[in-house]
Amino acid sequence: MKIPTHYLPITKNGISVAIRREDLIHPFVSGNKFRKLKYNLLKAKEEGHAALLTFGGAFSNHIAAVAFAGKENGFKTIGIIRGDELRDKIVENPTLKFAQENGMEFEFVSRTQYSDKENPEFIEKLRHKFGDFYLIPEGGTNALAVKGCEEIVTEEDSQFDYICCAVGTGGTISGISNSALPHQKVLGFPALKGDFLKEEIRKFATNENWELVTEYHFGGYGKVNAELIDFINNFNQNNNIPLDPVYTSKLTFGILDKIEKDYFPANSKILIIHTGGLQGIEGMNKVLEKKQLPKIKINV
């Protein structure tokens, strides 16, 4: 499938910036979620599983994607959701409502319980309750997910000097790093605080061609402010490209800011990977309304 690539009207120092629209790869399983699930779904079928179980938060792109992809491929889906207070708020939450409408069964757990998501004893308790399932980690990152993400960048992208992506669990940047050409530098823009991601990425990345740019998280995972919302709205109005508030807006803001600060050498060719996540905008607007902040003016 040929993914559209759009160039931004950048005029500084001969730099060119292109955005690879991975968000258009599928209407409901967009961007890196499609890539991460591709080989996991094949493996689940190969092993004869009837159900998929995974983890996520209130507005998780991953939860929404697993619910739809599971239904589309004939799997029962189970979502372990962080925050037991959400149990009675499914209809108020666009992401959970969408997942439920696509057949996902929920198990709401406290944040303390959720932190055990990689604990074998906790997983065994879930198997006892739900029966056999194929386990997909939070965010979808495992070796098969990285294999899928390795297909984002190809040799046809050899003209680019920098390949940039948002970072959540580290699977996407690992895959891009593994498939990047020797002359290319891979930059990851984490959507959350902390340097712990480096160790996660090193589990899967076979090259040393990557670097994390950590100063554009806007306060942490899922945190936004009026400046970022204005950026999302203006960017969409000027370029007709919607960005999500958790990942791609922080990534794109960071790259454009770095260009202004002369971080990139003159005549650099930069490729931004748009990893999707637009389904979260509706839920974020509900949060912004409660905080009396401006809304994101994008219909998805």
Task: Explain what the structure shows.
The protein is an alpha/beta fold. It folds into 2 domains: 5-27 and 152-291, 3-Layer(aba) Sandwich (Rossmann fold); 50-132, Rossmann fold (3-Layer(aba) Sandwich). The chain contains 11 helices and 10 strands. A 6-stranded mixed sheet has the order 1-2-10-7-8-9. Strands 5-4-3-6 form a 4-stranded parallel sheet. Strand 1 and strand 2 form a beta hairpin. Helix 1 (32-46) packs across helix 2. The longest helix is centred in the N-terminal third of the chain and has 15 residues, at 32-46. The mean pLDDT is 95. The modification N6-(pyridoxal phosphate)lysine is found at residue 33. The active site is at residue 60. Residues 12-276 form the Tryptophan synthase beta chain-like PALP domain. This is 1-aminocyclopropane-1-carboxylate deaminase.
List keywords for this structure.
alpha/beta; globular; single chain; four-stranded parallel β-sheet; six-stranded mixed β-sheet; 2 domains; pyridoxal phosphate
Radius of gyration, CA atoms, in whole angstroms: 19 Å
What's the arrangement of strands in the largest beta sheet? 1-2-10-7-8-9
How far the N terminus sits from the C terminus, by CA atoms, comes to: 22 Å
Mean pLDDT: 95
CATH architecture of the largest domain: 3-Layer(aba) Sandwich
| Number of separate strands | 10
Low-confidence stretches: none
CA-based shape: globular
Helix content: 25-40%
Order of helices and strands: EEHEHEHEHHEHEHEHEHHEH
**Major sheet details:** 6 strands, mixed
